[in-house]
Design goal:
Blueprint lengths: L8 E4 L6 E4 L5 E5 L2 H7 L4 E7 L3 E5 L4 E4 L7 E4 L5 E4 L6 E5 L14 E2 L24
Parallel strand pairs: 3-10
Antiparallel strand pairs: 1-2, 2-5, 3-4, 4-9, 6-7, 7-8, 8-9
Length: about 140
């Protein structure tokens, strides 16, 4: 399925209190191995996809969305009720980065590269999946 305004892709936080719609195809997806993603998710990496901001809308629970704005990093938005991470990106930015784990079903895209390998955890080997690898930020 290709998301559109008529047939959006749906997503939500862990408890379902915050729900969103994706109304256009994602542009690119990636795995991020940076320390912020590790600490934010409690995992070794985060899968997320870039989307033009105008194609993303919180449709239920916008009052429950809170933000963590780390120094030198993009703001990270999450559900205040369950802590489920939703997306990142500055309010005035052209794009948002949606957490693929928050999407219901198939997001229609697969991560295309791995970034911030310089920060990768030592306790988990990065799979030999053929994806391009970048020591710092990807393209």
């Amino acid at each position: 399925m290709t998301p559109s305004p008529q047939e959006p892709l749906l997503g939500h936080c862990g408890c379902g209190a915050v729900r969103f719609e994706v109304r256009a195809p994602f542009e690119v997806a990636r795995y991020c191995h940076c320390h912020r993603c590790q600490h934010r998710t409690g995992t070794s990496s985060s899968a997320n996809a870039r989307l033009v901001r105008s194609a993303f809308e919180i449709v239920t629970g916008p009052e429950l969305v809170d933000v963590w704005a780390p120094a030198g990093g993009q703001p990270k938005y999450y559900c205040r009720e369950c802590g489920g991470h939703l997306y990142s990106g500055a309010q005035d930015a052209e794009h948002v980065f949606v957490r693929l784990g928050a999407i219901e079903g198939d997001p229609g895209i697969r991560p295309e590269y791995r970034q911030w390998l310089s920060s990768a955890v030592i306790w988990e080997e990065i799979p030999d999946d053929g994806l391009p690898r970048y020591e710092e930020a990807g393209p």
